[in-house]
Design goal:
The chain has about 475 residues and is mostly beta strands. It has 4 domains: about 1-45; about 50-165, Galactose-binding domain-like (Jelly Rolls, Sandwich); about 170-305, no CATH class; about 340-475, Lipoxygenase-1. It is built from 5 helices and 29 strands. The strands form 7 sheets. Strands 16-15-14-13-12-21 form a 6-stranded mixed beta sheet, with no helix packed on it. A hairpin with a 3-residue loop joins β12 (about 195-205) and β13 (about 210-215). The protein is globular, with a radius of gyration of 25 Å.
Length: about 475
């Protein structure tokens, strides 16, 4: 358990550096005599203090919705916060009414935002609180009206629960080390590229444990085009690994995904054991130091995911509320055709697509999917004939095929996977013996009228080698 040490700081003065070093959190309360009473939790040397800003007073765009008292029975106590809430009148596709935005403060200090992205649907929203010093604390939940100024109905907080985490239990290590993510400055107040979900994967080795955290964001404003997101990834959300660590018996090494999608050692600050990350680019890569003003952050609870033999997009299948947000953000940002036309490469309503997961190992090749409907000889292609819209990576992946509006699962007749030589960069030589080892098709599904995944058509093992110019065809619904 962390060692507690207390001191009093008079306005404008701070304790000596030797007293402040090696700390990982402190909170301050202001008294009527302008004396700040601070509690300092001393911890490992790699966990520096993270100062926090004061919460805007009610009236500065904030409306107090609820206040809750929380008691921490130990120094450094951490909590799993659960809100049952809804935001009547909110709709993700309508600008100015996207969602209710909640601003949370602890003991008068800003802690995080929670976005009620599921609108009027009564839902559970989870977040992390802490570390907190031993004793009583005050949680305040405000409605931050600046995010959705046209939303004139106050969000409803129906229930608040704060469950203390047992930090000594091994299963909670990946929770108390979950990253805190600051939103990119140009997304604040816009409900664009919003961090929606955090999952982690864990691999046990002989002497070490590796944990990788991945965040699902509502979209990406830069980087891959919308048409290629659908063709090469089968989605318009952005899925990015953000932070990872390796822990051995006597060593701890952590890293993050930074500029140009490269991996860098983490050298930033922590809150407790939570690393602080900053979204700094329009394609949602991260930095361990702020590039400018970063006033808004989220503290998502990581969900453990087992993705061996699966496309990582299947995490969205487990939490299907992500799909309507993905689809409706495209409507709000006017990135879709008004009337879907599968003969053009421009994206359309996400309910017009068949989503296909398959697994392969590729060498010098690129794959795409095609779907045929009953009563037709036409094949609809995921790549629309564009070599840059094909999938050249190995593993289990997802693509999507645009179909005529109104298509339902029973209309699907056949699926085929096509193979071509991979596009070459300038000066690059082709592979000597290009081939794709197509292992399996995992699932094929559409979205229903509410943008939720319909039941998948059965997958199938294939285990066939495809060379450029070859196809593998499967009958669907048989």
């Amino acid at each position: 358990m962390a060692r507690g040490c207390a001191f009093i700081t008079i306005r404008g003065r701070r304790p000596p550096a030797e007293t402040r070093r090696d700390c990982y959190a402190y909170t301050c309360r202001r008294s009527a005599t302008l004396i700040w009473s601070c509690i300092l939790l001393c911890g490992p040397a790699r966990q520096p203090c993270v100062p926090q800003s004061r919460t805007p007073a009610p009236g500065a765009g904030h409306v107090v919705l609820q206040s809750v008292d929380i008691r921490s029975d130990e120094d450094g106590g951490e909590f799993r916060l659960s809100l049952r809430a809804r935001s009547r009148g909110a709709s993700w596709e309508i600008k100015g009414k996207e969602a209710g935005a909640l601003s949370l403060s602890v003991d008068g200090l800003y802690d995080q935002h929670i976005f009620l992205v599921r609108g009027p649907e009564e839902s559970i929203y989870e977040a992390l609180l802490g570390p907190l010093p031993k004793g009583n604390h005050h949680l305040r939940i405000d409605w931050d009206r600046s995010w959705a100024p046209a939303l004139d109905v106050s969000p409803e907080i129906l229930q608040v629960q704060a469950a203390a985490l047992d930090r000594s239990h091994p299963r909670n290590e990946r929770v108390v080390r979950a990253p805190i993510i600051y939103l990119r400055a140009d997304t604040i107040g816009r409900f664009s590229d919003v961090p929606l979900f955090l999952y982690c994967e864990e691999e046990q080795r002989v002497r070490a444990t590796e944990v990788v955290y991945t965040v699902i964001l509502s979209n990406e404003d830069g980087g891959t085009s919308t048409r290629n997101l659908l063709a090469r990834w089968g989605r318009t959300t952005d899925i990015e690994w953000c932070y990872a660590y390796d822990r051995e018996e006597n060593a701890f090494v952590d890293r993050f995904q930074g500029r140009d999608h490269e991996t860098f050692p983490f050298q930033g600050k922590y809150l407790g054991m939570h690393p602080i990350l900053y979204d700094v680019a329009r394609n949602n890569i991260f930095a361990d130091t702020p590039a400018g003003d970063a006033p808004v952050r989220v503290r998502l609870v990581p969900v453990h995911a087992l993705l061996e033999g699966k496309a990582r997009e299947t995490v969205m299948d487990r939490f299907p509320w992500i799909y309507p947000i993905m689809a409706k953000e495209m409507i709000r940002e006017q990135k879709l055709e008004t009337v879907g036309d599968p003969y053009t490469p421009r994206p359309s309503d996400h309910r017009n697509y068949a989503y296909v997961d398959f697994c392969s190992e590729q060498a010098g090749t690129a794959l795409w999917a095609e779907v045929q409907l009953r009563g037709s000889k036409r094949w609809y292609r995921s790549d629309h004939g564009d070599p840059e819209s094909r999938i050249g990576r190995s593993g289990c992946v997802r693509t999507s095929v645009e179909l005529p509006p109104g298509t339902v699962p029973s209309d699907l007749k056949a699926l085929r996977i096509g193979c071509a030589g991979a596009p070459l960069s300038e000066g690059e030589t082709p592979a000597g013996n290009p081939a794709a080892h197509l292992d399996s098709v995992l699932q094929v599904f559409l979205l229903d009228s509410d943008y939720r995944p319909s039941p998948s058509l059965p997958g199938r093992n294939i285990r066939r080698i495809l060379r450029p110019g070859q196809y593998r065809t499967l009958r669907l619904g048989e």
